[in-house]
Amino acid sequence: MRKVELLFDTIRSPYDIAHIIQIAQSIDCVVYTAGKNSVPFNHHKVIGKIRSWNIKGDISEIHYNTFDEAVYDLKGMGKFLIGTSGNADTLFYQLDFPEEKNIVLVFGTEASGLNQSKQELMDIIVKLPMNESKVDFLTLPVAVSAMAYELYRQYNFSRRGY
């Protein structure tokens, strides 16, 4: 079974982190974080929220000091990095996922997403389809949920007729 892998650039909101942990635990995925200003997963506000939701199991992240360090390390391991941006031309659901490489979904900061220089480090940039006349952006936990569950489905269920 392939695992979904997620990389976050400087995630600061304990509430967003708690949501991401809930998603990660529900599909048993690997989470990478980057940035010196990222709030750690063991922050008391994060722990309080996830305990109130009765989330079980070890909750951890693999942390890198910088985003560039994370990208170069993951690419060095042969991983395919899919960056996210509301300005992308390619829709996430139109992407043919490479079978021969492990995929890492990459998300920028809660406030500004992946900037242009960070997007250039990705193998491809995608966006989720949405009615942009009614919604300007998706919050980080919403985008993570939609994309992580779709990748999980494709990894584990699409070939079984689900």
Q: Identify the strand order in the major beta sheet.
A: 3-2-1-6-4-7-5
Radius of gyration: 15 Å
CATH architecture: 3-Layer(aba) Sandwich
Residue share in helix: 25-40%
Which consecutive residue ranges, at least 5 long each, have pLDDT under 50? none
CATH superfamily: SPOUT methyltransferase, trefoil knot domain
Summarize model confidence as the mean pLDDT: 91
The geometry reads as globular
Overall number of structural domains: 1
**What is the number of E strands?**
7
Percent strand equals: 15-25%
Q: Based on helices, strands and strand pairing, what is the structural class?
A: alpha/beta
Biggest β-sheet description: 7 strands, parallel
Describe this structure in words.
The chain is of the alpha/beta class and 162 residues long. Helix content is 33%, strand content 18%. It contains five helices and seven strands, in the order E-H-E-H-E-H-E-E-E-H-E-H. The protein is globular.
Key features?
162 residues, Alpha/beta knot, 18% strand, single chain, alpha/beta
Explain briefly what this protein structure is.
By secondary structure, the protein is an alpha/beta fold. It is built from five helices and seven strands. The protein has helices spanning 14-27, 44-52, 67-76, 116-119, 140-156, and strands at residues 5-9, 30-34, 62-64, 80-84, 90-91, 103-107, 124-127.
